[in-house]
Amino acid sequence: MLSKAPKGTKDILPQETHLWQHIEDTIREVTRAYGYREIRTPVFEHTELFQRGVGETTDIVQKEMYTFLDKANRSLTLKPEGTAGAARAYIEHKLYADTQPVKMYYITPCYRYEQPQAGRQREFHQFGVEAFGAPQASVDVEIISLAMNLFKKLGIKDLSVKINSIGCPKCRPAYHENLKSYLAKDLDSLCNTCKERFEKNPLRILDCKAEGCQPVIKNAPHMLDHLCEECSSHFEDVKRFLKAAGFDYNIDPMIVRGLDYYTKTVFEIISDSIGAQSTVCGGGRYDGLVEEFGGPNVPGVGFGLGLERLLLVLESQNIKLPEPEPCSIYFVTVGKEAREKAFELVQKLRGLGVFSDMDHVGRSVKAQFKYANKTGARYVGTIGEDELAEGKLALREMDTGKEEKVAFKDIADFFITR
Ligand code: ATP
Ligand code: MG
Questions:
Q1: Which of 121, 124, 208, 267 has the most ligand 1 atoms within 8 A of CB, as the residue to mutate?
Q2: Which residues constitute the domain of residue 270?
Q3: pLDDT in tens, 210-233
Q4: What number does the ligand 1 atom closest to the CA of 80 have?
Q5: β-strands 379-383, 392-397 pairing
Q6: What is the pLDDT of residues 273-292, one digit of tens each?
Q7: Is 11 contained in some domain?
Q8: What is the DSSP annotation of 96-134?
């Protein structure tokens, strides 16, 4: 127990954090260009927020939430996704009173009690964006473009965009009835989960992965054929803006998304290189959410992008990511006095932001050199009796083998000028 992390969680170790930081830096670069600013919300929220915001009929709420009572008997839940908290903050801080739209992004851990497998964990990380207060289809495509731009900057290829529209509270009820009368004939052949969905949220049946349900799902009527005037014209606009942005896309009438609060546009970005868990990014419009939480009637649109899955795609496509920065100078010392001198110089260089280091475990001179080599130090600075007497450092450039003497007092200049 004490030496094993809980099931479904993963440590991100010092030798791999540079990959995460590279992704995060790229996210910050891309979101900046699109005018999205970071929001940080608590890791836990009142359970009801997710019950209302994610939806009672979703897998997340029914099976996957980490819910607990705190010492004052409040029911709290670790965030399973990022949108509900962002929408709550938008209302709580009256961001709807600011100039609209409010465009935000987050990078956050999420928690879902699921069966762990490749690309599926109990603690995982999402990068997400939310734009509140913008009803127009251009913003739906703006966020798809933002995600695609991130993938492009990271060097990822072969992603496909799938879009659909799931209508709105005006046109969906009639479609639901239509779908239900189609499904009613074959209700017995559907899985138990789908039987439950039949009453509460029949649309979700289209999303079922169970083998036995597929023949029925295949011929089901599509929401796309039942959109009202407003949703239909919004969908046409989405397609037009996708074309203007130069993105290929497929219309997939089976995408309904896992969360209840979606209206109109839903989309997924899929990678064929990571097997079953192929959805890297999923999102869409949720015009009813802010009002559902007691805020004004404000539209919203956003996506969630799984960072573990993004890393799997990078790995599977053999994309070379930057290596961690090597040490600029490693001091090799002979004797106590030399160690003190090196410590003084390291101290000075670090103060100036130069990555410099020295031995702290009592290695022999030979082993210190070996260590410097192994860690890829760019320079090795040796200090022994002679160097102390001369007030100069024997500096060796590791790549070229070039050696020179540099006065202790000039060492800072040497490094900040290169
Ligand atoms: P899936 O169908 O794969 O379960 P989902 O519809 O539940 O996905 P969303 O709620 O839309 O996923 O979350 C957005 C993204 O977060 C997903 O596309 C995926 O990349 C990532 N994600 C979701 N659940 C997990 C998980 N348990 N572990 C790792 N990544 C996840
Ligand atoms: Mg899921």
A1: 124
A2: 17-171+227-316
A3: 899 999 999 999 999 999 999 999
A4: 10
A5: antiparallel
A6: 888 778 999 999 999 999 99
A7: no
A8: GGSSSPEEEEEEEEEE-----BTTB-SEEEEEEEEEES-
Q: How far is the CA of 258 from the centre of ligand 2 (A)?
A: 7
- Alpha-carbon distance of 39 to 52, in angstroms, equals 21
Among 23, 156, 260, 277, the mutation site with the greatest number of ligand 1 atoms within 8 A of its Cβ is 277
Cα(161)–Cα(296) distance, integer angstroms: 31
* Strand ranges for 117-262 from DSSP E: 123-132, 159-165, 250-251
Question: Whose Cα sits closest to atom 13 in ligand 1?
Answer: 304
Contact criterion met (CB below 8 Å) for 166 and 172: yes
Residue 182 lies in a domain: no
Phi, psi of 205, deg, nearest 5: -60, -35
**How close is the Cα of 60 to the center of ligand 2, in Å?**
7
CATH number of the domain residue 388 falls in: 3.40.50.800
The answer to whether the CB of 282 is under 6 A from ligand 1 is yes
